[in-house]
């Protein structure tokens, strides 16, 4: 048990070490919603690699982090910002936005419409489908 705890702590330290680079890349804004002036947390896009990878880690608001941890709670037009985020140049943003839109599409017509019009690079789509 101590070994698992130590590995987790080492991973958290590595993620914290990326903090400045993530904040610089994200301009201290949520990379999904664009919200500024809100608390931000790193989010590793599954499936996670053995070592934390900045290209597979996003800086997201606490609210987004909560929704990513509990996608069944997603609902409403509040998340229409994902219609823009899914066109990001960053593959990790595309993957997370696509996954959230897929969940929203179960209940929201606008999310289904966004997904119908979307084209992802095959490599990005494969990553998005790998959960």
Kindly describe this structure.
With 131 residues, the protein is mainly α. The chain has one domain. 51% of the residues lie in helices and 8% in strands. Strands 1-2 form a two-stranded antiparallel ribbon. Helix 5 packs across helix 6 (109-117) and helix 5 packs across helix 7 (122-129). The radius of gyration is 15 Å and the shape is globular. The two termini are 26 Å apart.
How would you summarize this macromolecular structure in one to three sentences?
Helix content is 51%, strand content 8%. It has 131 residues and is mostly helical. It has a two-stranded antiparallel sheet.
- Spatial arrangement of strands, main beta sheet: 1-2
Order of helices and strands: HHEEHHHHH
Distinct helical segment count: 7
Report the sheet with the most strands, covering strand number, pairing sense and barrel closure. Answer: 2 strands, antiparallel
What ranges have pLDDT less than 50 throughout 5 or more consecutive residues? none
What descriptive keywords fit this protein?
131 residues, two-stranded antiparallel ribbon, globular, mainly alpha
Write the layout of secondary structure elements.
Blueprint: H1 2-17, H2 19-26, E1 40-44, E2 57-61, H3 62-69, H4 82-85, H5 91-104, H6 109-117, H7 122-129
Antiparallel strand pairs: 1-2
